[in-house]
Write the structure tokens for this entry.
Amino acid sequence: MNRYKTEVKWSIIFVIVMLLWMGFERLIGLHDEHIANHAIYTNFFAIFAVAVYVFALRDKKKSHYGGKMTWNQGFTTALIITIIITLLTPLVQWITHTIITPDFFENIRAYSVEQGLMTQDEAAGYFTLSAYIVQSIIGALGMGIITSAIVAFFIRTKNS
């Protein structure tokens, strides 16, 4: 376990940052009165997500690899972080939608129906905790793999 201490640490930091972002979204009204803008502004979380991966790989490079890291070492480190985050994603979704913003699904369903984007039945089936858990698992894994590859490329020690 000590071998993966850095990966576990940064996975937990990522989850905390994600939960803080969800709280921020709720605070500025993206989960209720400004829900029409949610789909646009929620994407800004990517900046923080990439930053966490950068800090994580820089930490691993310095503390574990003596300041030199190959792309493969960086990618492997980031991939482990991605797997841990993916495993924690259902808990993050549960915390988000039961504690931070319990009315989100009700609000997004109402908005989708009012805008004519979905029928009541479609919205009721699409905007559920279980559907969001599945979507977030797929998203965390997919975006995590892409982010891992890109960040590892930039953090690697050149000529290694």
About this structure: The helical segments are 5-27, 38-41, 45-63, 71-100, 104-114, 120-126, 129-155. The two ends are 27 Å apart (CA to CA).
